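Exercise 7 asks you to align residues with tokens for two separate proteins.
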Amino acid sequence: MPGKFAPAFLLRFWRSRLARRGGVGLLLSVLLVLALDRIFPLPPAPQYSPLVLAADGTVLHAYLNPTQKWRMKTELSEITPALQTAIIEKEDRYFRYHFGVNPLAIGQAAVRNLLGRGRTTGASTITMQVARLLEPKERTFTNKLLEMLRATQLEAHYSKAEILQLYLNLVPYGSNVEGVKSAALLYFQQPPDYLSLAQTVTLAIIPNRPSGLVLGKSNPAILRERNRWLRYFGQHQLFPAQDIADALLEPLAAQRHPAPTLAPHLARRLVLAQPGTALIRSTIRPATQAKAEDLARNYVRRLATLGISQAAVLVVNNKTRAVEAYVGSADFDDRRTSGQVDGVRAVRSPGSTLKPLLYGLAFDRGRATPKTVLPDVPTNFQGFRPENFDRHYQGEVTLEHALTYSLNIPAVRVLAEVGVDNFTSTLRQAGFRQVAHDAPRLGLSTILGGCGATLEELTGLYAALANGGRWEELKISSSTLAPQRKILGEVKAKNSLLLSEAAAYLLTDILAQRTRPDLPLDAAASRHLPRIAWKTGTSYGRRDAWSIGYNRQYTIGVWVGNFNGQGSPALTGADVASPLLFDLFNSLAYNASAEWFAPPASLDFRLVCAETGLVPGEHCPSQLVDYYLPGVSASRRCQHQQEVLVSADGRYSYCRACAPASGYRRELYPDMLPEVLAFRENQGLPTRRLPPHNPMCRLVRGAAADHLTSDSPDAPPLLTITSPAAHAEYVLAAAEQQQLLLSCAASSEVHQVYWYVNDQFMRAARASERVFFRPPTGDVKVSCADDHGRTVHVHVLVRAH
């Protein structure tokens, strides 16, 4: 069916209608049509009801057209031979032979009307009815002539199939229902090409009496009229006798049904993106969509008592990147909980869901492997002091443990090594629009949810992990909405390689582990736990709960929370979002293939030190097997224990320059980061500090002569102030005589430190000792010097109230 009227008919008109006539006649006919178009322009194209179709072609969601009518566009493929036969035989049996007007029928009608014999008729052809439906007018003799002229004009522009299609799209069925497709869907809940012969004939007889024969109200009368026409068609042998007999026995149970309303958020999104388009084809699978909507709606109902009102779900086919289910909210019609907000595209804090990508970048940059040991202790990252979700610290953990348990401190440390710019640049490649916009202002808190992301972006990111690290834009429509979108002036590619296949596999292997704290208690005992790799996330203030998982077939993203941003004590990814994720996988992929991800050839195994995850050194008796990327992963040897020369009584240590010829022994001492050593001492865990260096060593005496030095960017990071935080502002209650804590992290050879406030000596203390003092108000400089001559400073602002 034509989408709009236009003079592009000439070539077809030349070939199909007048080619057999003489050249002069042809030329005159074409000129006549052109003149007619100029004087008598064709009416505008009909305004159809926007229909969003599912992947299988069924109607997913329907909207009223701009004139508030149900006028759904019937495609040529939906006009069955039975429908054509019934309509043409009933309305205009010579439709295929005339040129818009049937002179014989007009003559017969004129005689009948003049003599008053028989039923009064206008002898309208199907083409004339199309002209009248396009431009409704009062029925007068003049308008009848104009109608005939318009019918001739339409025949010159369109084929018979297109004219019949126009007619079937415009015929009235009572109330605000127009067109065969609208009637078929609203009364029989089937498209026209799925109707039985009895249903097809029913729709063929209504247009002549749309106000008298109302489906659902006049069914007995309609049934009698339908059977009368069926017998007529049988007498004229238009259909097989058995088909007629079966149709006569079919009951008529038609009634008005609501229009389809699956995937309302996606449907609205597609319609707004393609205004004026009658048929929009989506990638949604109706059964998957209906199941996802039901699961989300019923699940949120159970959470109502916890102060949680909404959920959003996205289901992606990993092979095609097609979105098969799109649930923007638990209930689109629930205004109380802002159900019309699209949770799939809402920008929220992603919590910990970005950590897998960060660790994958660390793998690809050779900075870590799964068994690499990372510090998990209180750390001050230039004024940023993150905490773990449970506010507990484990000292040192492997990377795979840090990811499985979603620890914050190791993630921030890795981000500091990888670089915030590198991390946000990769997110930009993956289509994170808010991150791309905010990138210049983002810092280390990004990895803990200090940025904006959508469920669509996060699900696409995890689909990339399922695809060996290659990101591709998710598909929501078979028609391209925007081939390339611009973000901050740059064109975003439709696909890009975020991680190597090896890094993606390592992440999958870690995320598929079942021994983890974010496994819901009820799922742990369930025999129906799906085999998936998944990650949870919880935003600050417990406002957003995420759980995103994937297997070979699907990637499913789940968000649970409140659209008004209100938090809830129960709102965590593990306890609230993961149960819905598992329900979705068990419902949608219960018979999925047992095929799982295989390690790529680019991965290999090696022995590493169990204490550090590095290539074993000479003092690494405990070793284990670890994955690594040959030619990429760092090959630095482990030195977690250092050999030290100590005096026979163990009071002093010697460097090579001051070691005596005899009377000393060799011992192994742990070589820990200062912050790890300070943490262990504060926790009362067994530690060993190096004995003081030989006081007679000239190197020590020279270094001690100037132990209060200025800051130097080249100073080794063997001494740091852990409290107070640099550039922080402290407001102390003067009436309560509040004090400020002084603490530091020093390497194992440091035994004593010296504290200074505004360059004035305050006191000496053990390296692990916590010191409290009452600071002056205003800008305060705090300095700490160790017994090896190293000095560090921080500046803070102190206010009193």
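Second protein for Exercise 7:
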Amino acid sequence: MAPLLLLSLLLLLSSTSLQAQQNITLGSSLTPEGPSSFWLSPSGDFAFGFRPIEGNTSSYLLAVWFDKTSDKTVVWYAKTNDPDPVLVHVSSGSQLLLNSNGALSLQDPTGTEVWNPRVVGAVYAAMLNTGNFVLAAADGSTKWGTFNNPADTILPTQVLTPGMKLRSRIIPTDYSNGRFLLDLQSIGVFLYTVAVPSGKMYDYYWSMAGNTTKLVFNATGMVYITLDNGTQISVTSGVTGSMLDYYHRATLDPDGVFRQYRCPKKVSNLSSQAWSVVDFKPPNICDAQLTNDGSGICGFNSYCTFNGRNNQSICLCPEQYSFIDEERKYKGCKPDFQPQSCDLDEAAASMQFKLIPMNSVDWPLADYEEYSPITKDQCQQLCLTDCFCAVAVFHDQDNTCWKKKMPLSNGKMGDNVERTLFVKVRKNNSTQAELVGSNKWKEDKKNWILGSSLFLGSSVLVNILLTSVILFGTYCTITVKEIPSLQSSNNIGLPLKAFAYAELEKATSGFQEVLGTGASGIVYKGQLQDDLGTYIAVKKIDKLEHETEKEFTVEVQTIGRTHHKNLVRLLGFCNEGKERLLVYEFMTNGSLNQFLFGDVRLEWNLRAQLALGVARGLLYLHEECSTQIIHCDIKPQNILLDGNFTAKISDFGLAKLLRTNQTQTNTGIRGTRGYVAPEWFKSIGITAKVDVYSFGVILLELICCRRNVELEAEEDQKILTDWANDCYRCGRVDFLVEGDDEAILNLMKVERFVAVALWCLQEDPTMRPTMLKVTQMLDEAAAVPTVPTPPDPSSFVSSLP
């Protein structure tokens, strides 16, 4: 038994010695799993390598951590080299390699490089006893080190120079970019709140000003800034006790406080080892300077209170409110009741709602109306009867009343708050989910939408429509003159490839794999026998009638001249005998329909980009190509996604064309139920505004990730366009994105998009914006600072025939 123990001890010492080697040679590598997952410093205090992410055993950080503390505290983690760096994490099977050319490369399981420090020519790497992992030159100088690229923590002997930053984590267990930033500038050190997930900095909430040359965490445990005249100004007061007996770090914590910590190196029981706070800034973050944008220190509708006993800030919700996410409290609070509808009269509002007082609490920047002089009772009554008012504040000394609306920002609790605050809640604390609106308008509009859906879905009426099309030849548009039939590729004069039918039959394996079907024919997947093995989508138009042949001619002539990032590109065609086929680029990710209404919700930022992409594609069709094109059937099935999830409009070749000097055309009904503009059911001309209406529906579907018509939904939510209008009028667009954390964090943008959609959905086509205006309103980079409030379509039904 003794020899076995001795052998085990020797193997352990040998393994530790190998891991703790001072110089890491070229060609060395690490993997997330197995014995070679990290490199130790010679002292064994620090490790550099792969660290499993808490709660996700198959995902890893590339990190530096204290290896001898009980929690193995992480002090550095890799981020991208972008202007706004984001967290890098990899899965099992990844590899970190110190290449023979002296470059460090992190590769995913496929061998694709996902991170590198952009340094070559190192002759070795080292995990130093200071906690700095370095790539070193032949003379021992540092070519790159973690100390020069900090995450959220600095260590003794580490120096920051102007331009270097610390970014907090979002929560202690999630290393993604958080809501706070320490920025060292030439004029001082500043703490900022940041818009997540971007790097947009709001106003700073704490600072230490001066002509600064560096921020130092020195070997004696003091953090200070050095001015250009040599003066040192302490940021923290330093530590007590020997640096030899304690580990030290200073971290910008997820709550926005910059804290200096120490942890005993020697303890009798490892479980008793813990970090304790030495000093922190600001002294009370709840009283820190207000930010004009964003939610402030805590989330929207939440308020901050400071616990001096443990030096912690705490975020709380008012009565009858609760956190959107208990673990991620920065997301703010939501009411546990249905907020007041703007359709309630004063008597009904007084019966259903009440105001409850709160002392020493305030949201200073949410005011939208002020009254003075006024009594406290009048102040409460004014808020109670105002559907926008969520909170009233009364100041006894000067008899002033302020009304506040949601979302409430910069909330705080403190003894220095001298005003009385009243929060509006329901008397019965109801959690009902219905939205009260204009019942007549909603019921009539619902009947119209459901009726139109049934109308378009009825096979009898469809046959009548098709008969009308044949008799009057007015399917989608009137053309000024007869379009000549397509006889051969030479008549087209377009830079499109003329495919032989046999070539396409071979490419599609006999037209076996169906991608989709439409009114004009079936679409098949194929692969060309070229050098690249190009995948294609082939639309085969069967049973070609005379009118259909003209549509085919129009499509080829138009799409061949139409090129835009957000339109599906036509590669070629086939015109042999009675065979009419179109060859398109293949869209790897299929249609938006399968992603938008599937089990997995697309990220909010991606959905916003998709909406803007579709808008730009329609803008091109309506205003920028040589001949105006009205699509007439905009729906998620006709929006395809390439490998980069770029939205591309398809099937627009079958929409009829308008000459540039024409403004409208009379037509038979075209389109898909749920997306059809109301003018299709009237004796008025059809313009490009029908596409604008359909886009408005799709925009709401992109916002909410649900179909426009869902008969299984609650009564007031069956018709998405109705529900969205109600939520917008009541100031509760957050209901539309409930459970969507990213969208909740971007409520201002969500509200902007909903407003644009409601403009697009105006019953009167002349009230709808052009796609140029829609694009400008959606694109925050354009010169449209705000979107005006769209008219409430309360008279919508009265104008229907």
